[in-house]
Design a protein that fits this description.
The structure is a single chain. Helix content is 79%, strand content 0%. The chain has a domain of 151 residues. It has 12 helices and no strands. By secondary structure, it is mostly helical.
């Protein structure tokens, strides 16, 4: 039995399925409790139904991006594990990047042909541990942080909303650094390996990144300048789809 067949085995499906089912049950419990509390507070039932419908509708297209991530990772990690990661706490950009980086450090590529029974636990462990700190820090400090937000006054909150706090700036800096590191590796390979104007090999990821970036710019422009705010929820998934389409067109 191959490694990918083992990763798609019934036992792993059962374990991951039970965890996903538990998370889904928790979501339903919170949904029911929120509905009951809303009615207890005297909220309009029509508006509550409208909020539920709009939330469910706007969750469909972004979920396409998650599905694409599961499909992209399933070829090397099997279906159950990516399904579990992206259903519970994982983020699409995080899971794919960490899995790829872990595989690279192990000296393999993220593909079914090179995956081994020794490499998968290491990749799965890193995918889990590196993102666990959000839960840990929330459990330890979220109540204190919430109390601080409540005690801040409207003026301070308004100022923070306009200028952005340290967390927003740190996240933006980290994301820019991460993107620069990935693009830098391909630019380095393009320049040192093939020559600046020899478009073979390393130029494909750069072209895909450019296509996705242009798509995101268009989505942002439409949502901010043309009053199409609803596009903001679909911008990441749409940019991914356009980037993948660009990869298919360039590859052929």
């Amino acid at each position: 039995m191959s490694v990918i067949q083992q990763l798609n085995g019934g036992g792993i499906y059962l374990i991951c399925g039970l965890i996903v089912a538990f998370i889904a049950a928790v979501c339903i419990v919170f949904l029911v409790r929120a509905w009951r509390i809303g009615k207890a507070l005297g909220m309009d039932t029509v508006k509550m139904k409208r909020a539920v419908t709009s939330s469910a509708t706007f969750s469909v297209l972004p979920s396409v991006g998650i599905l694409l991530g599961v499909l992209a990772l399933s070829g090397s990690l099997g279906v159950p594990w990516p399904w579990l990661r992206l259903s519970v706490i994982g983020a699409l950009h995080y899971e794919t990047q960490v899995a790829d980086a872990a595989a690279e450090q192990l000296g393999i590529s993220l593909s079914a042909g090179e995956m081994t029974t020794q490499a998968f636990p290491t990749i799965a462990l890193l995918m889990s541990v590196c993102i666990i700190w959000g839960m840990v820090l929330s459990a330890l400090f979220n109540r204190k942080y919430t109390d601080r937000l409540r005690s801040d006054g409207p003026a301070r909150g308004e100022k923070a909303g306009k200028q952005g706090g340290f967390g927003d700036q740190a996240m933006s800096a980290m994301f820019i650094g991460m993107v620069s590191a990935y693009l830098g590796s391909y630019l380095g390979g393009l320049i040192s390996g093939n020559g600046l104007f020899t478009f073979t090999g390393s130029w494909t990821p750069l072209a895909v990144a450019l296509a996705a970036a242009l798509a995101m710019a268009v989505f942002t422009w439409l949502s901010e300048r043309k009053g199409m705010a609803w596009l903001e929820s679909f911008s990441i998934a749409g940019s991914m789809l356009i980037g993948m389409l660009a990869a298919v067109l360039i590859g052929h």
